[in-house]
Amino acid sequence: MDTSGIAIVQFNDDKSKAIQSHFQNYLNNDMDGLKSLWSPDLEVYANSPDPIGLEELVGMLEAQHSTFSPIVMTFGEEVENQPIAWVETTDYPETPSSPAATWSQSWFTWTATSKLSGETITLPAHISFKWGDDGKIAAEYHFYETGPMTAAIEAAMAAAE
C-alpha cells in the first residue's frame, strides 16, 4: 500500500515516549534533562504569536517550581503506572503549502499547590511539539489558561521582596 501523502499517527513510538520522559524531567525539576531534548534555537509560543527562547522558558519553569509544590500532571484518573499525559506523534507528509514535519501532541491536567497561599490550581493543558531535523524539539506551542498560574507566581515574587 502506498502511504505517500498520508499522515501517520503513533502513540507508543520513540518520540511520544521521549515527550513522556520530558514531562517527567519537568516534574522532577530536572532542567538539564529538559535541555537535552530541546534545540538550542527552541521557540516557544505560550498562548502568544510571539515566541520566547530557551533561557526565558527555563526561567518560567524555575519560577513554577519555586512557587508550587507539588506539581502534578495527569491524564484521566490518577492510576498507578498510567502515563501522565496523552501523547501522540504524527508524521505529516509534504503538501503544496508546507514541508513534511513531525509533531507530538500532548493533553493533560496540570495541578499545583501554591507554597505561599496553599491554593491549588488545576489547568487543562495542550502542548504541541515540533521536531527538528536533529531529533530535538525545535518549537513548542502551549495552550492553557495562564492567569491563575501567573498570579500565584507574581504573589510569591512580591512576598519574597
Features:
single chain, 161 residues, alpha+beta, Nuclear Transport Factor 2, Chain: A, 4 helices, globular
Short summary:
The protein has 161 residues and is α+β, with helices and mostly antiparallel strands.
Query: What's the main sheet like?
Result: 7 strands, mixed
| Domain unit count | 1
The helicity comes to: 25-40%
Question: What average pLDDT do the residues reach?
Answer: 92
Oligomer type: single chain
Percentage of residues in strands: 35-45%
**Amino- and carboxy-terminal Cα gap:** 64 Å
Q: Identify the CATH class.
A: Alpha Beta
Helix/strand-derived class? alpha+beta
Characterization of the model:
With 161 residues, the protein is α+β, with helices and mostly antiparallel strands. The protein has a single domain (10-87, 103-160), classed as Nuclear Transport Factor 2, Chain: A (Roll), CATH 3.10.450. 29% of the residues lie in helices and 37% in strands. The chain has four helices and seven strands; from the N terminus they run βααβαβββββα. Strands 1, 2, 3, 4, 5, 6 and 7 form a seven-stranded mixed β-sheet that branches. A hairpin with a 5-residue loop joins β5 and β6. It is globular and about 55 Å long.
Question: What is the fold's blueprint, element by element?
Answer:
Blueprint: E1 8-10, H1 14-27, H2 31-35, E2 38-46, H3 54-67, E3 68-74, E4 86-92, E5 101-114, E6 120-131, E7 137-143, H4 147-160
Parallel strand pairs: 2-7
Antiparallel strand pairs: 1-4, 3-5, 4-5, 5-6, 6-7
Helix pairs in contact: 3-4
